[in-house]
Amino acid sequence: GENVEQHPSTLSVQEGDSAVIKCTYSDSASNYFPWYKQELGKGPQLIIDIRSNVGEKKDQRIAVTLNKTAKHFSLHITETQPEDSAVYFCAASNGGSQGNLIFGKGTKLSVKP
Amino acid sequence: DTGVSQDPRHKITKRGQNVTFRCDPISEHNRLYWYRQTLGQGPEFLTYFQNEAQLEKSRLLSDRFSAERPKGSFSTLEIQRTEQGDSAMYLCASSSPGLGTTGELFFGEGSRLTVL
Prior knowledge:
The complex is a heterodimer. Chain A is mainly β. The mean pLDDT of chain A is 92. Chain A has no helices and eleven strands. Chain A starts with a strand and ends with a strand. In chain A, strands 2, 4, 5, 9, 10 and 11 form a six-stranded mixed beta sheet that branches. Chain A has a five-stranded antiparallel beta sheet with strand order 1-3-8-7-6, with no helix packed on it. In chain A, a hairpin with a 2-residue loop joins strand 6 (56-59) and strand 7 (62-67). By secondary structure, chain B is mainly β. In chain B, strands 2, 4, 5, 6, 9, 10 and 11 form a seven-stranded mixed beta sheet that branches. A four-stranded antiparallel beta sheet of chain B has the order 1-3-8-7, with no helix packed on it. In chain B, a hairpin with a 2-residue loop joins strand 5 (44-50) and strand 6. Chain B is globular and about 40 Å long. Classes of the chains: A mainly beta, B mainly beta. The interface between A and B is medium-sized, with 27 and 25 residues.
């Protein structure tokens, strides 16, 4: 089955700096790669996703890149703000399964004002 | 509020007791998922339903766990003879993907279980 590795586990940046979180996956059949943000006491919330037929996707300050050959994808947040502080999870669809997502262990992002 | 709702939000029980969690998905969503999340970890897939059919179950879902989704609406997750290792946040999510795709999962705020 699919396995997703995520790093770093913690990331601290100054407000206005960029933050990058990286993930690798194992199953070349996986075709959907979302990123979720989880704030304390809440469920994860989708912030951006990418499918395997696309190499890059951007939404305002957030971008995701996908390298299918190397089986890795990354989240880029520019001009970070204190409200970006949260735990971020990458995920991959479980091979070709449409049924579930396999999540990384998360990155705790702290943005210092 | 038309999001995913879960009940109860917190449950404290003694080892060996049975517990049941309920999830009400977004009304037009045909898929419903259960995940488990322990401290410092990402959500781990347990099972999912397409309408009332349970289509996939994780190996994490031992025979003490049972999930149902009667009539394809709300779902329940029951844990029998709870163990301390069952202590976790149980997350429910729903989605309405296009045919042949994996769509956005909308998560509820979770039901936190503490087994003493």
